[in-house]
């Protein structure tokens, strides 16, 4: 045999062996080869046990990836080269992704568990027919604070965040719409305001908050607040509920000038490869027992009425996280402000972050 033929044989044997080994490993783990599902979700936003349960029930292997803002998620999906089968954007991002033709229509016949969703969370303006999206979690933006560390401050007003006594004692969540929106709200403007003067006024006001801001942080805000690294945090409601589970001294409030009401929904991006698996995953997450377990784990508010019914009263009856109508009237949902205004908000937020250095 020539050297060349021997080498070919060797490569062939190694490649075949590897193929055999992978298929053996896959089948021993219960996966039917190639049946995978790529899920793209916010960080800390699912009970990992539920992923394992889904894999076991369906034989589908989940590849799970996370993002920390709607903007990052949209950019990644838009630039291509990904194979996300399910993603979980917020309402204004869903409206933008529809415009950009990034979403596939859902097949409702494969989502029988949709009947468990409270009708209040269906047919919302960003997707009136729920043709592209179905509810996952919802919540507000507000202030988590430690009453023992803030003197007389009650945070009925956003302005309390600016109080001199809070020097270097405030964490902010790392979100452009949330922080700029809070600046606008504190001035009595809408958090969808696009008037340049108002936006500059909000930026100027936010820069006055700088001495109080200890850091602008991501998901670690929960650990930092629970460990009392600062007295106050601007957070999404579910993070507050998680923090309060860890440290009972803390409380959560939505200031009177108003704030944001948001909805995160499950969608199937056009990058999807496993449409059937995507529908199975979405339907699984809509199952009341699954949704209840997920709610207990992540701390956010569930739109699933039958999950809510089986959750303990201290969760379902907590008006801080399941606000009544009076509070919801003070809240605003983010509008899709269009690509240019959205990047302008991002620029303003960057400018605010840079001021801090
Ligand atoms: C969870 C993030 C919640 C997303 N870490 C709020 N839309």
Automatic annotation (TrEMBL):
Main location per the UniProt record: periplasm
Residues annotated to bind spermidine: 92
Pfam families: SBP_bac_8
Record's GO cellular component terms: periplasmic space
One GO-annotated biological process of the protein: polyamine transport
Subcellular location: Periplasm
Key words, A-Z: Membrane, Periplasm, Signal, Transmembrane, Transmembrane helix, Transport
Coiled coil location: none
InterPro entries per UniProt: SBP (IPR006059), Sperm_putr-bd (IPR001188)
Keyword Signal: yes
Domain of life: Bacteria
A molecular function GO annotation: polyamine binding
Gene3D superfamilies, sorted: Periplasmic binding protein-like II
Residue ranges crossing the lipid bilayer per the database entry: 7-25
SUPFAM superfamilies on file: Periplasmic binding protein-like II
Official protein name in the record: Extracellular solute-binding protein
Native source species: Paenibacillus paeoniae
Species lineage: Bacteria, Bacillati, Bacillota, Bacilli, Bacillales
């Amino acid at each position: 045999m020539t050297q060349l033929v021997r080498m070919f044989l060797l490569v062939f044997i190694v490649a075949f062996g590897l193929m055999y080994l992978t298929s053996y490993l896959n089948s021993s783990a219960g996966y039917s080869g190639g049946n995978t599902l790529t899920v793209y979700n916010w960080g800390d936003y699912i009970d990992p046990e539920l992923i394992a349960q889904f894999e076991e029930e369906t034989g589908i292997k989940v590849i799970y990836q996370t993002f920390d803002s709607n903007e990052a998620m949209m950019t990644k999906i838009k630039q291509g080269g990904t194979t996300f089968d399910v993603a979980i954007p917020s309402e204004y991002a869903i409206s933008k992704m529809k415009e950009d033709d990034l979403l596939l229509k859902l097949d409702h016949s494969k989502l029988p568990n949709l009947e468990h969703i409270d009708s209040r969370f269906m047919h919302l303006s960003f997707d009136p027919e729920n043709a592209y999206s179905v509810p996952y979690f919802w919540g507000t933006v507000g202030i988590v604070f430690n009453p023992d560390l803030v003197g007389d401050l009650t945070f009925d007003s956003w302005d309390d965040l600016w109080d001199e006594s809070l020097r270097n004692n405030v964490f902010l969540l790392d979100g452009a719409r949330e922080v700029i929106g809070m600046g606008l709200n504190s001035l009595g403007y809408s958090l969808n305001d696009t008037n340049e003067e108002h936006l500059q006024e909000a930026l100027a006001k936010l820069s006055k908050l700088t001495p109080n801001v200890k850091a602008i942080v991501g998901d670690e805000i929960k650990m930092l607040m629970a460990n009392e690294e600062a007295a106050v945090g601007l957070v999404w409601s579910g993070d507050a509920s998680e923090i309060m589970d860890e440290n009972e001294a803390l409380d959560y409030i939505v200031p009177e000038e108003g704030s944001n009401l948001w909805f995160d929904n499950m969608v199937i991006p056009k990058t999807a490869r496993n449409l059937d698996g995507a529908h199975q995953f979405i339907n699984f997450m809509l199952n009341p027992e699954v949704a209840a377990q997920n709610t207990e784990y992540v701390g956010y508010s569930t739109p699933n009425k039958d999950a809510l019914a089986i959750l303990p009263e201290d969760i379902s009856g907590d008006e801080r996280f399941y606000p009544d109508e009076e509070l919801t009237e003070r809240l605003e949902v983010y509008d899709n402000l269009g690509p240019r205004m959205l990047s302008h908000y991002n620029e303003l937020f960057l400018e605010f972050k840079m001021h801090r250095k």
